[in-house]
Write a structure and sequence with these properties.
This protein is α+β, with helices and mostly antiparallel strands and 207 residues long. The chain is 20% helix and 33% strand. The strands form four sheets. The protein has a six-stranded mixed β-sheet. A four-stranded antiparallel β-sheet has the order 1-2-4-3, with helices on one face. The protein has a three-stranded mixed β-sheet with strand order 7-6-9, with no helix packed on it. Strand 11 and strand 12 form a beta hairpin.
Length: 207
Amino acid sequence: MTMTQAYPEMLLRSPAADWNRARWEELPDDGNRYEVIAGVLYMSTAPSPFHQWIIRQAVLLLHEQIESTGVGFVFLSPIGLFMPGCDPCQPDLLVIRSSDQHMIGERSIDGVPALLIEVLSPSNPEHDLVVKRAAYARARVPEYWIFRPRQRDVLIHHQPEPADEQYTQVARIAPDGELISPTLPFRAPVAAFFANAPGPAPSAQGG
């Protein structure tokens, strides 16, 4: 494997695209996140506290509007999500509709969730903005959010176009805007995902 980014958050990738689910299942449970996308193995190290704070806020808001209302289920990484071309991927958060709960297995999730969420890492942004966005579009994920800690905004993607590996609809929701899901009964101020985080200022943390 060759290192493509540096400390404090590292992203490593295999030089060959010959990985699959069977090989992934043999990897150690060592606290790192392992993903296999289009045959390439990616390993990322633990994220920053601010990254985790954003995830926590998203879980609380999604639980209130999605889980408590019976719309669906919310899951956090690390988790094995297997979709076409992903053996597996590990999004920061995912939402599965109640009608699709048959996808939830004992050790993994097999199928395409209603929503995938990533918190952008400033040290390796192309992983979420290029590699994962293309993979999620190929797999026909209906909706994909990218939270950007440094900008304090969110990118909303929907209407995937698998052949082009892109989403036909992409919107930036500003820090003072409201995130309104185009496919799920969810809405919340963007500021609610970032506000009141403990510790140093996010710019000092690097997100």
